[in-house]
Amino acid sequence: YLYTALANPGLGKNYDVDNLSSLRKLCGTCNIYYDKHKTFHCSYCDICVYGHDHHCPWVGKCIGDKNLIAFYIFVSSTFGLIMYLFLATIF
User: Fold this and answer.
1) How far, rounded to the nearest angstrom, does the alpha carbon of residue 71 sit from its chain's CA centroid?
2) Is 48 a catalytic residue?
3) How far apart are CA 19 and CA 22, in angstroms?
């Protein structure tokens, strides 16, 4: 949980104006140029996140390219703990 909550989700990359192609777009809020197929602006965090998956209310931050695997580990271990506690009360 801590690594997912404290890790950088992968902030949007700022590209040079001279090197723009049709795949780049300007974010009006963040004022950066980003890859429009891989970067999205989160309205909750008010930042552009590279590889944006979703904004997680449990963790309180965006899940992006750099903390996605840690988020999957967090969710699966939480599910495993809940199943263990559920089965321990039955048997």
Assistant:
1) 9
2) no
3) 10
**What is the tens place of the pLDDT at every residue in 12-59?**
766 655 555 656 777 888 877 777 778 888 889 888 888 888 999 999
What are φ and ψ of residue 60, in 5° steps?
A: 85, 20
Catalytic residue among 45, 48, 56, 62: 56
CA distance 37 to 23: 7
CA 38, 43, 45, 46 torsion: positive or negative?
A: positive
Where helices occur in the chain by DSSP H, the ranges are 2-6, 68-90
Paired tokens of 61: 């931050």
Specify the residue for token string 């965006």: 62
Q: By C-alpha distance, which of 56, 60, 40, 38 is closest to 48?
A: 40
pLDDT digits (tens, 9 = 90+) for 61-81: 999 999 999 999 999 999 999
